[in-house]
Amino acid sequence: MQDYPDTLASITNLASTFQNQEQWRKAEELLVGVIETRKRVLGQDHPDTLTSIGNLASTYGSQGRWTEAEKLSVQTLEMSKMVLGQRHPDTLRSMYNLA
What we know:
Shape: globular
Number of strands: 0
Helix content: over 70%
Distance between the termini: 33 Å
Number of helices: 5
Radius of gyration: 13 Å
Structural class: mainly alpha
Order of helices and strands: HHHHH
Largest sheet: none
């Protein structure tokens, strides 16, 4: 997988397309790859990495994989609070997604 931000954004968009088509495995594979690359290149607590983790949580939730979705959603929320603060729009979005 390429390390370039635009490439990762394009892969994320493709994963979103697969989600909309309910092709969960394909979406999951792409999102896991994006997360791994972003963690390596940007770090675990970078906002783009956190967004990618939240996207994977959403994919799990759409499949009824509630335990996995909740675990990732809580992780995203806690990291967002630490990195961005409690009132940042991304943190608030994470709260909403967990609710």
